[in-house]
């Protein structure tokens, strides 16, 4: 019997401490009726939420961002991060992306 996998795409991010961070996300599907959330896991059980700005639900485009203050709260080191969508009609949750969120100090 074939195996079925429902795993997120791995995306690793590197950013600079005290800089703001943003990235455009393009799912290339109509996401009307979806809610997108994204988080960086920092300390045991603590998370920092990305701001998720919808560019176009019909095109499935979003921007995720963190402020410079949030980057300072996250702190130096390698952290986990993930982006999920929830389909409003069914409450189904899917983790679309996950990976390492590395914060580095330069200068």
Q: Could you give me the name of the CATH homologous superfamily?
A: Immunoglobulins
Number of strands: 9
CATH architecture: Sandwich
Low-pLDDT residue intervals, each spanning 5 or more residues: none
* Secondary-structure element series: EEEEEEEHEE
Instruction: Round the Cα radius of gyration to an integer and report it.
Output: 15 Å
Kindly state the mean pLDDT as a whole number?
A: 94
Brief sketch in words of this structure:
With 107 residues, the chain is mostly beta strands. It has one helix spanning 68-74; strands at 9-10, 13-16, 21-26, 34-41, 47-49, 51-56, 61-66, 77-87, 92-104. The longest helix has 7 residues, at 68-74.
Commentary on this structure:
This protein is mainly beta and 107 residues long. The protein has a single domain, classed as Immunoglobulin-like. Helix content is 7%, strand content 55%. The chain is built from one helix and nine strands. The chain has one helix at residues 68-74, and strands spanning 9-10, 13-16, 21-26, 34-41, 47-49, 51-56, 61-66, 77-87, 92-104. The strands form two sheets. Strands 1, 2, 4, 5, 8 and 9 form a six-stranded mixed sheet that branches. Strands 3-7-6 form a three-stranded antiparallel sheet. The radius of gyration is 15 Å and the shape is globular. The termini are far apart.
